[in-house]
């Protein structure tokens, strides 16, 4: 069944089967396992979901969430019309029971149910505040190894991780397993992490956990809350496994940016001046000292987190460097002064940037929004991407995009501006940007921009 609404009813889910339900626009795949489904069906569900992503041509960042019957997430429930949870209290005290008739005692309405409103949890993908218990493993070949608690929140691009989270939102234990895939992890470990996640689910909670596939730099807001208030740190490549560590560079630069939860992500980037961005804060670590560089548009949270980041990395307490007050010695540490993204967003600006994908792969020219937090990997080289930065619109031309996509996207951008209900200025500039030749003003919208991603 395909629909632009929520056409499903809860009665369609049979406890003896496994179902795959997708929201293609949001690149979300849900795998629902009925209580009475066979073991083989449950084991095959992840493979089928992965094959579905390839068949539908979805991004490799598409999120797969696996859950068992009666452990459904709020976001999943929003896919159904009038979902009723097991023993859920309604109105003045009626309790609904699934597939049975029960004698129900009338009780006062419990105001705490407001904290688990599916619409709010779905909007921000926040099942709770992250104060539950966390356990993390690193994938090593076909096995997994516990990560020391002192290293929680640090991830390496050459590794894959399993993050097991337990919490009690409604007086009963619930579980989420995030399995994180580094951008430079080996193909064998990428395959192993999905299998090990299923095994971890069975070992830790009898297969009742919600499983969430996460790729590097696409971490959901809730996952960012699980590290005790510390920033999430993503090291460039390498691995943290014992005996396999990659030696860190003598000079390192971390791009620090906060999300709407006020938790920060720190991504290691190339230690050159062109990596700086006036909208954010950066931590520069050298063999003898460290510096917390604050762009004109950096928030107080980002500035503060630079100091926390230095402490976590075991670097000296950083010296504060405000944009515009840098010394030549500072720039010498990052290869000399050169152009970088130095156009800070205004503090009173309330409109968030939006990214769209323009494609004619289906035979028709269509424009689809890229939902959630996006990164450089979301720029599809087969298509044209449109970035609405409010003060300007960028058309990013992928090298493999078709002539039709390139010509139609220009007119589409003009129509987009003219039809904006907020009465946009029709003189808003439209920039056409070629893949590999992006200006700094464009790169600045993508945290941790990799200047060499498309070099080959």
UniProtKB/TrEMBL annotation:
SUPFAM superfamilies xrefs: Actin depolymerizing proteins, C-terminal, gelsolin-like domain of Sec23/24
InterPro entries: ADF-H/Gelsolin-like_dom_sf, Gelsolin-like_dom, Gelsolin-like_dom_sf, Villin/Gelsolin
Pfam family, one: Gelsolin
Matches recorded under Gene3D superfamilies: Severin (3.40.20.10)
GO biological process: actin filament severing; actin polymerization or depolymerization; barbed-end actin filament capping
Domain of life (superkingdom): Eukaryota
GO terms for cellular component: actin cytoskeleton; cytoplasm
All copies of domain Gelsolin-like, residue ranges: 6-76, 143-224, 268-314, 366-442
Residue spans of biased composition, Polar residues class: 403-412, 419-431
Region called Disordered, residue ranges: 403-431
Keywords: Actin capping, Actin-binding, Repeat
GO MF annotations, alphabetized: actin filament binding; phosphatidylinositol-4,5-bisphosphate binding
Similarity section: Belongs to the villin/gelsolin family.
PANTHER family reported in the protein's UniProt record: GELSOLIN-LIKE DOMAIN-CONTAINING PROTEIN, VILLIN
Protein name: Gelsolin-like domain-containing protein
UniProt source species: Ciona savignyi (Pacific transparent sea squirt)
């Amino acid at each position: 069944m395909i629909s632009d609404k929520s056409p499903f009813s809860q009665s369609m889910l049979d406890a003896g089967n496994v179902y795959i339900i997708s929201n293609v626009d949001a690149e979300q795949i849900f795998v629902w396992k009925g209580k009475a489904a066979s073991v083989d069906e449950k084991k095959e569900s992840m493979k089928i979901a992965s094959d579905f992503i390839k068949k539908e041509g979805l991004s490799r960042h598409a999120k797969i969430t696996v859950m068992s019957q009666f452990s459904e997430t709020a976001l999943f429930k929003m896919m159904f019309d009038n979902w009723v949870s097991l023993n859920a209290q309604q109105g003045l005290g009626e309790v609904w029971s699934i597939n049975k008739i029960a004698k129900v005692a009338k009780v006062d309405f419990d105001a705490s149910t407001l904290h688990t409103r599916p619409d709010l949890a779905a909007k921000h993908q926040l099942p709770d505040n992250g104060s539950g218990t966390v356990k993390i493993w690193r994938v090593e070949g076909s096995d997994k190894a516990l990560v020391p608690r002192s290293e929680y929140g640090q991830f390496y691009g050459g590794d894959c991780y399993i993050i097991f989270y337990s919490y009690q939102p409604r007086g009963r234990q619930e579980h989420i397993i995030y399995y994180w895939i580094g951008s430079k992890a080996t193909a064998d470990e990428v395959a192993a992490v999905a299998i090990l996640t299923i095994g971890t689910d069975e070992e830790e909670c009898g297969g009742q956990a919600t499983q969430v596939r996460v790729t590097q730099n696409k971490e959901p807001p809730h996952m960012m809350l699980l590290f005790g208030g510390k920033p999430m740190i993503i090291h460039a490549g390498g691995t943290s496994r014992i005996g396999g560590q990659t030696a860190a560079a003598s000079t390192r630069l971390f791009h620090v940016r906060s999300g709407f939860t006020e938790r920060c992500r720190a991504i290691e980037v190339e230690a050159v001046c062109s990596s700086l961005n006036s909208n954010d804060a950066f931590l520069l670590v050298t063999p003898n000292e460290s510096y917390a560089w604050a762009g004109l548009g950096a928030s107080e949270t980002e500035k503060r987190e630079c100091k926390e980041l230095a402490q976590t990395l075991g670097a000296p307490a950083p010296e504060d460097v405000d944009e515009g007050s840098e010394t030549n010695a500072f720039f010498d540490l990052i290869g000399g002064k050169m152009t970088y993204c130095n156009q800070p967003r205004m503090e009173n600006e309330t409109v968030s940037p939006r990214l769209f994908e323009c494609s004619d792969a289906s035979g028709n020219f269509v424009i689809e929004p890229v939902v959630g937090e996006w990164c450089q990997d979301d720029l599809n080289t087969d298509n044209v991407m449109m970035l609405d930065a409010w003060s300007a619109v960028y058309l990013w031309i992928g090298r493999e995009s078709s002539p039709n996509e390139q010509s139609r996207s220009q007119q589409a951008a003009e129509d987009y501006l003219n039809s904006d209900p907020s009465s946009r200025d029709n003189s808003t500039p439209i920039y056409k940007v070629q893949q590999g030749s992006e200006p700094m003003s464009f790169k600045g919208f993508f945290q941790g921009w990799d200047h060499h991603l498309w070099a080959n």
